Amino acid sequence: xxxxxxxxxxxxxxxxxxxxxxxxxxxxxxxxxxxxxxxxxxxxxxxxxxxxxxxxxxxxxxxxxxxxxxxxxxxxxxxxxxxxxxxxxxxxxxxxxxxxxxxxxxxxxxxxxxxxxxxxxxxxxxxxxxxxxxxxxxxxx
Length: 141
Ligand code: THU
What we know:
CATH class: Alpha Beta
Bound molecules: tetrahydrodeoxyuridine
Oligomer: single chain
Radius of gyration: 15 Å
Strand content: 15-25%
Largest sheet: 6 strands, mixed
Strand order of the largest sheet: 1-6-5-4-2-3
Structural class: alpha+beta
Number of helices: 4
Order of helices and strands: EHEEHEHEEH
């Protein structure tokens, strides 16, 4: 169930909204921003970056996550506590299927989106991508 939450998630959404303001989306005019939160408290931002060869577009969430991985401390396992997503023309803006799978890779625990009144909704990842395929499936192969 989606659960309205207080300030920290609201701050994460505010960061995602700032990132959405930097989107490069000349083809869709659909600006998206994401803020990825690591268990350490580190936050990285991403926005969608489109391309004239449309298929080369990269979503906001994947840009935020790849930066989180690149910016982590040496020896720190890449992990995600939460990812907040804001679409300037969609409320809520849910992550696409490809992004859900990438969030899954790093054990994302929650996705935070804006509800109809702009409130933070925290959704457990199991509801975002149930019965998912992940790294554990490849253990012992
Ligand atoms: N987009 C994202 O950035 N994240 C999503 O999860 C959904 C879609 C972007 C991709 C494209 O630039 C635009 O939104 C329209 O699909």
